[in-house]
Amino acid sequence: GDGGLIEVSAASSTLFHGSTDRSAPLGNSGELLLDPEANFTISTMFNFNYATTPLAKIPIKDIANLTIDTLLLELQKGPVTIQTNFEGAGDFPGYIQLCPDVSCSYESPHSLTLCSTGSKGILWNGSLVNKGTGDIKLLAPNGKVHLTPTDKQFPALIQTSGNICIDSLGPLEITGTNRRLAGLKTTQAGQISVYTKENVTLTSAQKAPALIHTENGSLTIEAVGNLTLHGLNDAPAELCSIGFGEIIIKGSKSVHLNAESGPALISLSSQHGNLLIDNVSMGVELNALGDSAFLEGGVGSVTLKRIGSDINLFSEQGRCSISSIGSV
Questions:
Q1: Rounded to an integer, what distance in angstroms lies between the CA atom of residue 64 and that of residue 149?
Q2: Which residues make beta-bridge pairs with 95?
Q3: Which of 77, 143, 226, 324 registers the highest number of CB atoms within 10 A of its CB?
Q4: Cα–Cα–Cα angle for 47, 52, 54, nearest 5°?
């Protein structure tokens, strides 16, 4: 049989720095569920957000912390889910945060799931790279998902050879800053799926790209709001599939590529796969103001259908195009 579920939960905060055994020699490893009624941080420091007394380290009420070393150890043993239903008041809304001091790589076939029902959602300010096939899922049913580096040393990056899934009520914001990129990446045949009831926005900054990349895996974005790529300061804002993966964008209010002082692009990198933009109610707009804005297909097709308004291409100082080796 399979390994069992181990749950660690509390009416307020929790302190988890031990280890579990969820192994099943002839089955699948069991899941570790961390479920405090508190905001949750993942940091390199044992005492992050904790009050230190002469005898013990005690979690501050309504804030739980897990060290990244403990998390990576548990991901070697089986899947890990961190969830919280906490919603504070006033300036203390509910969230889960990957802290900016985290910049780690690991290799695991097991999934990592973060689920915050708080209105602040999930804040991803560090870098976590899985060289294995384990999926990474960020779920914010009442809030947003925001990736941005807040430390000049490390990017804000989610990368795995498995799949990445982001599902949120609020917007997905990927913002490069501090000369560090912000992005989602899959390697091998990992897929990226983004579902949100609001906007998806990628904004670059000086030497700080904002990107979503797949390698031989499909990229699907279903956003009820606008899909906007802002290219600034010579750094790209881009959706890109390298290899055989498709790019599918559907159900958005609008698609805007604004290349102000950096490129803004949706590209298949002249490779195989198709690009589909479907059911966009308020049109598609490419603005090449100071750099290039383009939709670039590969050997496959580029298809724009059920576009409810205009398709506008505006070039001032940069290149602006919709092109493909295959059909358009």
A1: 22
A2: 121
A3: 143
A4: 135
DSSP 271: S
Residues 6+ apart with CB under 8 A from 52: none
Q: Cα–Cα distance between 317 and 308 in angstroms, integer?
A: 28
Distance CA 323, CA 100 (A): 39
Encode burial over 163-178: b for 16+ CB neighbours within 10 A, e otherwise. Answer: bbbbbbbbbbbbbbbb
Per-residue burial over 310-327, b = 16 or more CB atoms within 10 Å of its CB, e = otherwise: eeebeeeebebebebbee
Burial call 58-95: b when 16+ CB within 10 Å, e when fewer:
ebeebbbbbbbebbbebbebbbbbbbbebbbeeeebbb
Burial of 250 (0-12, 13-18, 19+ CB in 10 A): middle
Longest dimension (CA), the chain: 70
Cβ count near 305 (within 10 Å)? 10
What burial class does residue 17 get, using C-beta atoms within 10 Å of its C-beta: 0-12 exposed, 13-18 middle, 19+ buried? exposed
| 3-state secondary structure (DSSP) of residue 23 | coil
pLDDT tens-digit series, residues 273-316 = 899 999 999 999 999 988 999 999 988 899 999 999 999 999 88
